[in-house]
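Lecture notes, unit on binding sites. The following record was shown on slide 14. It pairs a sequence with protoporphyrin IX containing FE.
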Amino acid sequence: MYGLVHRAIRDMVLTHHGPQVWEQIRSESGVGDDAFLAMQSYDDAIVLQLVAAASKVLDISQAECLDVFGQFWVLDTAVKHYGNILDSFGDEIWEFLGNLNKLHDRISSTFQGYDAPSFQLETSEDGTHLLHYRSSRQGLTPFVIGLLKGLAQHFDTELVITVVAEELNDQGQHTKFCLETGGSP
Ligand code: HEM
């Protein structure tokens, strides 16, 4: 994945735990200082190494790490570095979620050859929202949960997130989320 993802993990640890803990995690992961160039594409294994090391040093599960990281990505990284993108794809959360593919398409010229996930939002008549997440990668469902929590906070919406199905396949994975709001559907 692009180095900006690694940088965001580093920024999250630095913000919440400080430089000493970050150095512990980096050293535990075996990832070199040269893996943090934002606009360079790296092997996916690096993200997994960083998450595994963070989970060990912080003594939380890898799923929890990915969840916290997803929230941080929206609320800190995206707001600081991609604020214009966050503002351009929807005034409220449902419009924004319906535009996630357009968002990733729009930036594909900047992130050459990247491998973005795809999302499909279905809204039924009773106001229930189903969000399909498809990726060529496996194991990132907790990251998506964190991203959704971050988006809910960003758009000031109360969101109940339930994983209703998760399927690992030859293409990667497909996860179906049921999303409900406390307020208007
Ligand atoms: C705000 C601006 C955003 C930018 C600039 C951005 C950019 C990126 C980039 C560069 C990657 C790495 C792909 C690669 O290196 O192959 C990525 C992955 C990803 N993005 Fe976005 N993204 C944005 C917003 C979002 C949002 C709001 C979501 C919410 C669901 C999201 C979901 C994901 C997921 C889940 C991945 C992990 C890759 C995978 O699942 O296969 N992104 N994005």
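Take-home: The first helix runs from residue 3 to 17.
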